Amino acid sequence: MDSISTKNCTIHFNNTCYSSLNKHLLENNFSKIFILVDENTHEHCLPILLPQIETEAVIEIIEIESGEINKTIDTCVGVWNTLSELNADRKSLLINIGGGVITDLGGFVACTFKRGISYINVPTTLLSMVDASVGGKTGVDLGHLKNQVGVISNPDLVLIDTKYLDTLATNQMRSGLAEMLKHGLITGETYWSKFEDLSKLSLDDLDGLIYESVLIKKNVVEEDPFENGLRKTLNFGHTLGHAIESYFLSHPKKTTLLHGEAVVVGMILACYISTELTGFPKETTLKIKDLFVSYYGKITIDKSELPEIIDLLKYDKKNNHGNINFVLLEAIGVTKIDCLVDDTVIMDAFEFYAN
C-alpha cells in the first residue's frame, strides 16, 4: 500500500513502516529515543518494533498502566517526570506504541514537554489505526469526562503495521470496526456497502478497509483541521456514545465499555434521531440497528439512568453557547451538523434502542 502524505505528517503501511522510520531517525539525529508503552504493548508489540529500529541513539522504555481510566493528567505528570529524570531534551523523540490511550496521551505529553518534542505514533489496535492516530488530536480525560484537555498537534510519522492486530482480542477488533462503520455512514454507499454483511468480512479484507478509512479521515481533517465544520461529521454517534462511555466508566457497578461499543449504541440512537428530525429513512435506521445489534449485542441501560447520561452531554466538546450539538444524517453519506435535539427525542431514541 502506498504511503499517505498529509500536510503535517506521513502515514506508512506495513512493509514501508520501518524503512521510513529508520530514514527519519538518520535524517534527524535525535539525541535520545523514548518509547511509550503499556503493559500489554510492552509484552506483545515492543518485541516486534525494537528489532526494526536502526539507530545509535540511546533507547529508553517508559511504561504506563493500560486502560481509559489511566488517560489522565496524573499519568502525564509521571511520564513528564520520567522524561526529565532520563535527561530528555528538545531533540528527543517519543514513539507511542499502543492504542488510542497511548497515542492520545503520548502525543499530548510530547507536544507539551519542553514546549514540544517530536513524536511518532505506532497504533496497535484497529481503533487507533483508523481513528486515534490520524488527525493530530491529543489529550486526556478529566475524571470520567472524555478528552477534555488536549491540543491538536501532528506526529512526524504514523506507522500502521497490521501485524499488531494479531495480538488483539475479538472485542478490541469490534471496537475498532465501529469507527469504520461510522466512516461508511458519513461518507456514502460505496464504502458503507462493504460492511452490510459483516459475516462475510475476513482478516484478509482488513488491509484495504483500513487504508480506505485512513484516507477518509485524512481527507476530512485536511479540509477542516480544527473542527470548525466538516470535521464535526467524524463525531457522528459520539455525542451520546461518549456520554454512555463516561457513565459506564464512572459507575463501579457497571462493566466499562470499550469506545467502539459505546459508539455503536450512539450511532443507533443518532440514526433514530435523524429519522425523527432530518428525514433519514426509517427503514434504513431499522436495518442499521439490526446489523449492529446482531454483531455487537445490546447493553442494558435502565430508564432511571437516562437523566444522568443526558446530563453528561453538556461536556461534549462540540458544544457552544450552551447548546448541545448533534451530528445527524439526512441519508447515508449526507450529514447535518450542529443539530439541536430535545431531551424527549433522546429519551425516545433510548426506548427505540432498548426495544
Automatic annotation (TrEMBL):
What does the record give as EC number? 4.2.3.4
Residues covered by the 3-dehydroquinate synthase C-terminal domain = 176-319
Name the source's superkingdom: Bacteria
**Which InterPro entries does the annotation name?**
Dehydroquinate_synthase (IPR050071), DHQ_synth_AroB (IPR016037), DHQ_synth_fam (IPR030963), DHQS/DOIS_N (IPR030960), DHQS_C (IPR056179)
* Named cofactor requirement(s): Co(2+); NAD(+)
Domain named 3-dehydroquinate synthase N-terminal: which ranges?
Answer: 62-174
Recorded GO MF terms: 3-dehydroquinate synthase activity
User: Which keywords label this protein?
Assistant: Cobalt, Lyase, Metal-binding, NAD, Nucleotide-binding, Zinc
- Its EC top class is lyase
User: What Pfam families does the record point to?
Assistant: DHQ_synthase (PF01761), DHQS_C (PF24621)
Q: Which NCBIfam families match?
A: aroB
Function recorded in the entry: Catalyzes the conversion of 3-deoxy-D-arabino-heptulosonate 7-phosphate (DAHP) to dehydroquinate (DHQ).
- Under what name is this protein listed? 3-dehydroquinate synthase
In its UniProt entry, the species of origin is given as Algibacter miyuki
